[in-house]
Design goal:
Number of strands: 0
Shape: globular
């Protein structure tokens, strides 16, 4: 049951990434006149994250060990957003890029669910 909640959150995260993140992060980066290698890397990275978020929903829905491993990736991504936010702006940086909240919550659900199932 909890994995289904994580899957729904992953779908929500993917939708936000695709429809809000594209305009809020990708488009300004592509318009910034960066050198071609940097622009290409950013563009490809954005699409890689899109695929990862969408595939995560499938993995979380199915559950099992793979879901727990994907959950760790989500938790590590949350930690990275916390680190970057604090390094950039101190505590207020956590609100500049609040992605850590949904990444952490979504990752925590299948991680705890999988951990509890493995103990039984």
């Amino acid at each position: 049951m909890l994995n289904k909640v994580a899957a729904a959150l992953a779908v929500l995260t993917a939708a936000i990434h695709l429809f809000v993140g594209g305009a809020g992060a990708l488009a300004p980066t592509l318009a910034a006149g960066l050198p071609a290698p940097a622009e290409g890397a950013m563009h490809a990275s954005w699409h890689i994250v899109s695929v990862f978020l969408i595939w995560s929903a499938v993995v979380f829905w199915r559950g099992g060990d793979t879901a727990r491993h994907f959950a760790l990736l989500w938790l590590m991504a949350a930690v990275l957003f916390i680190y970057v936010g604090l390094r950039q702006s101190g505590p207020s940086g956590l609100m500049v890029n609040p992605q850590w909240t949904i990444l952490g919550l979504t990752g925590m659900i299948p991680f705890i669910s999988g951990w509890r199932a493995a103990r039984e």
